[in-house]
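Q: What would this complex look like in 3D?
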Amino acid sequence: SQQGEEDPQALSIQEGENATMNCSYKTSINNLQWYRQNSGRGLVHLILIRSNEREKHSGRLRVTLDTSKKSSSLLITASRAADTASYFCATDGQNFVFGPGTRLSVLP
Amino acid sequence: DTGVSQNPRHKITKRGQNVTFRCDPISEHNRLYWYRQTLGQGPEFLTYFQNEAQLEKSRLLSDRFSAERPKGSFSTLEIQRTEQGDSAMYLCASSPVGAFYNEQFFGPGTRLTVL
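A: Here is my prediction, written as structure tokens for the whole assembly.
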């Protein structure tokens, strides 16, 4: 089974609201990354958090990592329609492993 | 150089035929990765090169799949005797020198349809 598992599978919110996605993984990691994929496009790296970090910010993104619970969360504040995409967490376990993703829809 | 490029962008083939995809990574990126992505799923790791050396292969990579990176620059992924189950998006990514599993830069992918 895949190392990373995102939750929820799908999320629909109104523009301006915050969106929170969670990722759980199974084995020890060195770092965890979040990627975004717009429909029909390639993946774009959003943020990387190392195993010795607990929180990281980048613009409207906030990522947390709890290695004791083997989980991470991605918060997108003040969402925009352009944030509509699939979001994946990726961990560096045995291989570089992506979860199945959270499909975020931001409604105008 | 504006990013990772992949060719072709789309490939339709008949079952049993061989197909080859090409990936041109970002210049000076010594690591190159291949992934497969099916609809509604995340990318699945296939294989990884550091320069010309293929260092890791997934169990997903059956003997019908072969990848090369002969000069440590571009890479090719060949699928022999294609099956309908091979239909997917094939993604290539590259990353610069540094700690393993750095940020990866993805290409647009090659969508394969096997009829």
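A: To summarize the key features: The CA atoms of residues 27 and 94 of chain A lie 9 Å apart. Chain A touches chain B at residues 2, 4, 30-31, 33, 35, 41-45, 48, 88, 90, 92, 95-101 (CB under 8 Å).
Q: Very helpful, thank you.
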